[in-house]
Amino acid sequence: MLLAHNFDVSSDVVPVLSREEFAEVFQSGLSAYEHLQCRLVNHPHWTVEILFSVQEFSAQQVGELCLHTLADKRRTQQLSKDTIPEILVLGGIKTTPPTSDSPYALQPGDWGVDVVETRSGEAFLQAIAWDSTVAQKPADSVFKVEVRGD
Fold first, then answer.
1. E-only strand ranges, 53-110
2. Is the confidence at residue 149, as pLDDT, over 70?
3. 57, 97, 141, 147: least buried by Cβ within 10 Å?
4. pLDDT on residue 58
């Protein structure tokens, strides 16, 4: 599973996480799970690779763990209740050929996951046409988990 960070919030309100900080959120936050391994990857879009045992976790369960891990990080930053962003974790299985020959390009059958921080999850999903994008896909090839900032 590869994670990308979509930061759709003013950096004046919520601190931007560097690629390294974003990776560290999951490396430390998921370290309690022996069947999950996280690392920073060198790719223009993807930031974190999470390897997991499919006998232990579904992709959606890993997505939920990622959601709660990032939400916990934001809570520890003591942001005001009005500024904590909504977090969406949007996953889908790659079904087309890779777009580059990078060793970290998403491969067919792999999960690509966008971790989104936004002021409005609903507006973000509308802007990317999430409902129409996933409408024709098998239910077990996509997932969406979300948490409001409050």
1. 86-93
2. no
3. 97
4. 95
